[in-house]
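tool=predict chain=A
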Amino acid sequence: MDKKLQHVSGDPLLPAGGSKGVSKGQANPKMSGVVCVYPFAIFIFWRRYEKNTVFRLALLLIGWVVVLGVMLVSSPALADRSLSYPRLLIEAEIREDGSMQVSEERTVVFQGQYHGFFQWIRTEPGVEITDIQVREGDFEYTFNPAGAEGPPGTFFIRDEGDRVFIDWSIDARDENRTFTLSYTVRNQVKSHTDVAELYYQFVGDEWDEPTEQVMIHLHLPSGAEPNEVRAWGHGPLYGRVDIESPSLITWQVSPLPERTFLEGRVTFPYRLVPENPVQTSEEALPGILAEEARFATQANRARSVLRYNIFLSLAVILAGIGSFIVVGVKRKSYRKVFPGRYFREPVGDSSPAEVGFFLRRGLMANDFTATILDLAVRKYLLIEEYPLSRPRRRKKTGYALILNNEDWSALKNHEKFFLDFLFGSIAGGEKKLTFTQIEQFAKKKSGVKNISQALKILKSGENIEEKMKELFKGKRIIFSTFWSLWKNMVGKAVEEQGVYDQEWEKQERPLLLRKLLLADLVLVILLVFVYVLTGVFFIPALLALIILTIHLGVLFVRRLSSKGQEHMAKWEAFRRFLREFSTMNRNEIPSLVIWEKYLVFATTLGVAKRVMKQLERVYPELREGSYTFGTGWYFASGGFSAKNYAAGFSSMTTSIMTSVSSATSASGAGGGMSGGGGGGGGGGGGGGGGR
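tool=predict ok
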């Protein structure tokens, strides 16, 4: 005998059937507005602060706190009026004439002022609801034959054809009240040639609010043997139906969600209701058993989905954790070969783009910015600030790059390619390039790609500079092509530094991949087995895909060598130094001229703005002796000042980030009851009156 209930909910977008007060199903304009605007705000700030991971996380946290706050403030639970139902006890008794006497004892918690409460009961054709009474404890409400609202302590009834509407007047404010609605249901029990049947919704699916605890007792006439009574229930999966004795069946659910019915079905000997007027002259039990078996199968499958979803979700988590543990690569799994808290200079001779690629396994817009600053500090470029000619533009200042040194022999391949792209593809051979040109060029979709050929050149590792110039000679490549090739060139340079464990990648990783593939094969066989037994497919298959994706990620995991571990520790210590140097003693802080180089790496590490603010505190005018920050590579109109430089630097960085982000994002780089039911009579809803 199946003993669970299946949850069958109504449309959550429709207003509740009986409540004229505040409804949880109603959309809240304030909350909806915030929820709609929030994703756009996140998108704008996410793109703007691409290099600041901490800010991004803070933005997400603050944003969702705001959304939740609005939800709470605008929640119906905090509105002027609301209802809740902590308990519902239904006592029902089937009599020998087939009628059913029902007594519903419902506890209601009123928040705010209410002057009425109502309930309706759905009726099938031929079914009647009679002998309706309302009371509270020993106090009986008076029937109002006028069929209209009256003073507190009165009730009226309205027959609306397919339902009976009962409304009683009260005076309730911020209190708990327990109402007892009693009535007789006639012609609901059917007497077949083999059994008698009750199929009835004791609680309908039109209640606005959930009920915390529901208990139903159905009493049958005496005289049945234990094996002659059968009972089922339809509703939430976690509900229960129990045959306590041949004359008592109980249903219980805690809680019963809003807009969810609780339905009971009982078969018993027809001799118990000898005076029942509803006679079908048909055999019904085989059909009832077959239908309930289908409902039970559906419910069992639903439970299987739930169980297997939980099991496979845990499997996914364990598989993901296990994969990375086995691979031995976690972000901070390297040993602390550098024990100090601070490292006071850049590590090795890496370019800022190489540092960014090493730390993040990819390039970001701030690596583009840092490369420009690096080439400027090294006097290959000059940065010029100039006023824009159109005063109505949002930006009041423009920036230009001027090629200052054409001897690139000391540069790395990716730096040469970077400069060649700026002044070849974008500037068209000119020695001056504005940021506006970069922005406009980044939006272009047409141009020369030749990515596959260029990648072959990079892979060969021979005469890269000459071959690349020959490949793109006289041609303008699009921004996304540049970004892909530049990323590959920077990655190759990082690879040559020996920061990755080559022995592990050549020997241990292939063996690990074979083991993971074997595990995936076992998983697929297991999922097929689960599908054959339970019919569950979609969710397990989705979770299996996640596991396979995690395993596939092993192909792209890089394990650090001992040198790489040391570099990682030092770069993190250097980032910490840049964030906190203003708290140190003045004699421990490097001279101003050294900070030009440090600012380059601060840009890649995402702490440039913080560094500039601290520099202004340590060097108020960004001067030290006769030396001024930016001398020889940064030229500002109207004379130099720390304030203008900080504002200009921020604007310049934002401009470049906008260009790079636009180009790369556009290109894509980077004991229970059974399931089913709903066929029984009864049902309905109710709620607080609007008066």
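The chain is about 40% helix and 20% strand. The first strand starts at residue 82 and ends at 94.
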